[in-house]
Amino acid sequence: MPHLVRGVVARQKGAPVSLETVVVPDPGPGEVLVAVRACGVCHTDLHYREGAINDEFPFLLGHEAAGVVDAVGAGVTSVSAGDYVVLAWRAPCGTCRSCLRGRPWYCFDSANAVQPMTLEDGTKLSPALGIGAFAEKTLVAAGQAVKVDPAARPEAAGLIGCGVMAGFGAALNTGAVSRGDTVAVIGCGGVGDAAIAASAIAGARTIVAVDIDDRKLEWARGFGATHTVNSSRVDPVEAIRELTGGFGADVVVEAVGRPETYRQAFFARDLAGTLVQVGVPDPSMTIELPMIELFGRGGALKSSWYGDCLPSRDFPMLIDLYLAGRLDLDGFVSETIPLEGVEDAFARMERGEVLRSVVVI
Ligand SMILES: NC(=O)c1ccc[n+]([C@@H]2O[C@H](COP(=O)([O-])OP(=O)(O)OC[C@H]3O[C@@H](n4cnc5c(N)ncnc54)[C@H](O)[C@@H]3O)[C@@H](O)[C@H]2O)c1
Ligand SMILES: [Zn+2]
Ligand SMILES: [Zn+2]
Question: What is the pTM of this model?
Answer without folding.
Answer: 0.96
